Amino acid sequence: MGFWNNLFGGRKKKNKTYHNKLSWITWDIHNHLLPGIDDGSPDVDQSIELIKGLKDLGIHRSVSTPHVMYGVHNNTPQTIGSAHQNLKAALSTRNIDFELKFSAEYMIDDQLGFLIENDQLCLMPNKYVLIEMSYLSESKGLFSIIKNLLEKGYQPILAHPERYNYYHNNFKIFEEIKNAGCMLQLNLLSISKYYGEHVKTAALTLIRAGMYDFVGTDMHHNRHLDALKGVVSKYDVRELLRDCPIKNATMFETAQEKKIA
C-alpha cells in the first residue's frame, strides 16, 4: 500500500530526475504543440521549447491535437495541416529529430455531428478520434457521437474523463462509456494535484479500476511541462498504470505489424 499512500499525499520519493521517464509511452497522443491555432503554443519558438522538453522526458513521437471548438477554435484539416507543416519545417531547419503527426481534439458541440457525417474530421492514424466535453456541463450528445463515429469506422477516445467534475459522483458512467465502444485517455498531470484534489482522486480511482486505454500530456505551455517533470520525478507512472492496458506504443501499428509482433 505504500505506493498508493504516496500518491494520495503521503511521503514522496526523493528522486528528482525526470530524464527519459516517459520513454515507455512512445507516442504523446494529446497535446497543443502546433503554433498559433488554439490556446496552446503561440509560436514556433515556444513549440520547439516544448518539444525539447518532451524529448528530455523520453518522448520522441507526437500527435498534435489542437482544439476544434465551434465559435472559439474554428480549426479545419487545412489550418491544422498548415501549422503542422510550419512546425515540421522548423524542426528540420534546426536539426531536431522528432516525429510529428497531427489530428485534433474535437469538442462535442453542435458542429461535430456535421463534421462526422460529411467526412471532415482530421483523423489520427488508424482512424482514432480524440473527443472532449465541456468542463462545466455534461454533453447530452456524447453517446450519439460515439455511435456515429463507430458507424463511420472511427475509434473514439474520450480525453481526460477524470476532469469532468459532474461525473465524480457517478463512476458507473465511465463503464457505460467504455461499453459503448469509446476508449479513455488519462492526462498525466491528473495524478498530481495540478487540476485539483477531486480530479486526482477520480484519476486514481479510474486507474485502480484499469479503465484507461491511453495517456497524454495535454501540454499547452511551459507550466505544464514543468509540472509534468515534477510528477515523473516523484512517481513511477509506469508502475502506477500497470493494470491499465495502455496502448500508446502500439496504436498506430498496422495489422501486419501487430501480427508479426
TrEMBL record:
Belongs to the metallo-dependent hydrolases superfamily. CpsB/CapC family. It comes from the Bacteria. The keyword Hydrolase applies. Its EC number is 3.1.3.48. It holds the Pfam family CpsB_CapC. PANTHER family: TYROSINE-PROTEIN PHOSPHATASE YWQE. Keywords: Hydrolase. This is protein-tyrosine-phosphatase. SUPFAM superfamilies: PHP domain-like. One of its GO terms (molecular function) is protein tyrosine phosphatase activity. It is an enzyme of class 3 (hydrolase). It comes from Sphingobacterium zhuxiongii. It catalyses: O-phospho-L-tyrosyl-[protein] + H2O = L-tyrosyl-[protein] + phosphate.
